[in-house]
What we know:
The chain is of the alpha/beta class. It has helices spanning 27-38, 55-68, 83-97, 120-148, 169-189, 214-223, 232-242, and strands at residues 18-21, 42-47, 73-77, 102-105, 151-156, 194-201, 254-257.
Amino acid sequence: MQERPELQRAGENLSGRVVVVTGGATGLGxxxxxxxxxxxxxxxxxxxxxxxxDVTAQAxxxxxxxxxxxxxxxxxxCDVRDHDEVERFMTEVKERLGGVHCxxxxxxxxxxxxxxRLPPEAWREVMETNVTGAFNCIxxxxxxxxxxxxxxxxxxxxxxxxxxxFGIANYAASKAALIGLTKSAAVDLGSSNINVNAVAPGFxxxxxxxxxxxxxxERAERESILGRVAEPEDVAxxxxxxxxxAARHITGQTIIVDGGLTLAS
Length: 265
């Protein structure tokens, strides 16, 4: 097998900024946290326990990796579906790290199943986590960002909002709604110099990807114009860019990071 070249870190230094990443203990969220830390930003992230996974242990590993980069870090259990928990978490972040400048709504869940037999609770949990959770976090961060007349918000959507596969009606609907929320929040918060954008990844090499059938991954690689699925860093770099001053005139947009998957017929 051919080794992939080392991904190079690029972009401006973000020292002095405090970034909140939801669902930052594992997978793509962890890569986003580390990318911001490498750029000098202090990082806060939340997590929840999940069946069959020791997320608390993973959160400790992520926190340790961030500390090793010499920046401030704070992590805590917080369910983004719970408005009061989110408010408390944001207050703790401001007290411990000194503010909130950037918010990345990465927390999300999937509960797949054919639409005609999808349990109502599977619909509710996906919508409440992926959409209401993002709304709760934006609402909690907005007063601070509006007061300082500065803020960057990035919502993690999905290419499946545009090209859904079979059995993901709840997930595709949630990510399409998240894109609608992105545009609406950009309109509401733009006058306070707050940029709100979304990133829509295709398949990303995380722990969750390994649980998909091998034929799904192989088909994604074949259909991608670039012939590969994304490394977590491929997405994290775009998120960091949208939180930088290089992207100060971009708002209400969705950047698709899928290797051209959505262009396949």
